[in-house]
Amino acid sequence: MQWSLFVLILMGQCFIFKCHLYEYHFIQKEMSWDEARSYCREHFTDLATVSDMRDVERLRNSSQTTDAWIGLHKPWRWSLPGVEYNESEALWDNGEPNDPENCVKMDENDDRKWDVESCTEDNKFICYNETGQHKYSVIDESKNWLQAQSYCREKHTDLVSGLEQIRSEEFTTLIDQSSDEDLWIGLFRDTWSWSDGKNFSFRNWDPDSLEDEGNKHCAMTTKPNGKWSSDICTNQKPFYCYDDKVILIKEKKTWDEALDYCRENYHDLVSITDSHQQKLVEKKAKMADTEFVWLGMRYTCTLDLWFWVSDRLVCYDNWAQEEKIEGCDRATAMKRDGKWYERREGESLNFICAL
Q1: DSSP-assigned beta bridge partners for residue 269
Q2: pTM above 0.85, yes or no
């Protein structure tokens, strides 16, 4: 063990060394929020996520701009879990979605395009049945959107959700035979969420910016102090991307072999020092060919403790509640669910390197 780590252990303190497993990139091209997200996903990882004030400082130091998109937005989602919303296939009416309301109906016109409406309005609606002879039912009762969702979930499966359902022959026939009235479908605008799906509760809003939110459903940096504001998503702005600096190696190696591989080809076996890094690594682990992936943490019998090979103490952990194994030949592996486990160093697993 290196002397620097030994000194920290003797001092009995957990010093936090910030190891960034992601980096920000400021893009000066002006694009809409959706165009900016596509650009970031093509060239990097995604639009920038911000997990704490340390990330705010990093963004402030990366550029002089005070008007640039970040990855926070109010996304459209389908009511039925597991159905993905695809903007390129959406059946919006001309000019939609173009108001601050958050629920979607199928309009009464012949083309049955989608319009945005207040969720408190009453409309008839369409339920989806996962089982049964008929998969779709037009409910001849007027309810607000949440009441309609509850009705469908109680008596059927859910509100009709997704293009596969809406474009099916049975659904099209049913709609052609139904009366000319507006009908709720299962599309709604969710609360503020990060583009890459990470569940960070951290927000850094400028208090004055939330008074006139209206149809401003995408977030941007606005102040030299790093505060955020919202704006109309179609407006053209520069933006911040982020790029993760970890890579999954889909080769089966022992822990020592994995450590040597990472140090020869990249930087090191990955260390995890906070919840943001945990999310990045967890995302990679889900794509592994083995049930577990090696991390850069091992056990030392001499001092009876776990430590990161990058000279970082274990200030953050995500251990599973499982019986521990005995012996000195122990290292840490992450399961696909993100939990950490003790494994024998001689096992052959995929592993994750820090770039």
Answers
A1: 353
A2: no
